[in-house]
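Review form for a predicted model. The reviewer records the input and the model, then writes brief findings.
Reviewer: anonymous (R2)
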Amino acid sequence: MQDDPTTPRLEPPVAGDAPARILGQWTAAQFARPRLLRSLQRHLVAVGAGAAWDLRGVDRLDHVGAQLLWDHWGGRRPERLEVTPAQQAVLARIEQFCSQPPARRRPRGWRGAVTDFGAGVLHALHELREFVRLTGQLALDMLRLARKPHEGPWRDLSGHLYRIGATALPITALVGFLIGVVLAYLTAKQLRQFGADAYIVDILGVALIRELGPLLAAILVAGRSGSAITAQIGVMRVTDELDAMVVMGISHSFRLVLPRALALAAAMPLISVWTTLCALAGGMLAADIALGITPSYFLRALPEAVQIGNLLLATAKSVMFGLLIALIGCHYGLGVQPNTQSLGEGTTSSVVTSITVVILVDALFAIAFQEVGF
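Model under review:
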């Protein structure tokens, strides 16, 4: 094997200042030969990384061979190194991708914490300003649509209605049914202690129709459709489609934001009603099994237990939830930078912000309309 001129080998320095000569083909194909790589590593250790090196006798040097030498040199070039221009290019590429990671950022004390807090506040205010601007632009686009309905993006609207509304029905039905079962079993356990079994209809009716149904549907839609809206618009940013729309004079808000906002505002009340009905079905089944409350009694008592005001309040909340989820998804989608990392961060931020805002708005509705429906 040593007689083969292509075999990678090392000639140690013959004198104190003489360089160590690298010969043969230092390539991945040569290193695949049995026991060759281990033999080379032993010879490299015998020379030491601080010696002078001469690579001009190497027939071929690929990135694997250069990486082997680079690791032996301790991640930096020797002080005395003789290479050809082609070897110089390979080593430069190894040096580029094997540079040391940046040092960990040390804590900057209370001044750094105050600076970071101030930067966070300014960033939040900037995001809020952009969101308000997008909301105002949506209002102007709705006025434009009212004046010229024949110019509206109706085909986009119908497509979003199908994707956001119809395709969400199975998952919302399953989750709503299971939530109804769990809530009914937990409620029945408490009511049985006081002999107030019949009140399970009132508790389930008000809780599911007024609060849990719309809230559960909004959270599911925010996680499912809100992220999809951000991803769709973000991908258009990455592929320069948004810039192309600007060049062609097409409004982002009118063609992208308006159909999605209208579709979610129209679909959310229907999804909320569907989720609530499925949750009531689960609760009715669990009440029959746990307390012996028959479905016929449940259905007769439900209209008396739940006032019409609860239905109106749930519908109003659902419309508001739909608009907010669509606007937040579009806001983060339009803010995506043309790279995949920003796309992932924008999608995650969209989902987290949408769910947080939905819960916050639901709490505000509960406080503001606490006298409605009772």
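Findings: Residues 252-291 form the longest helix (40 residues).
Further findings: The chain has a mean pLDDT of 86.
Recommendation: see findings above.
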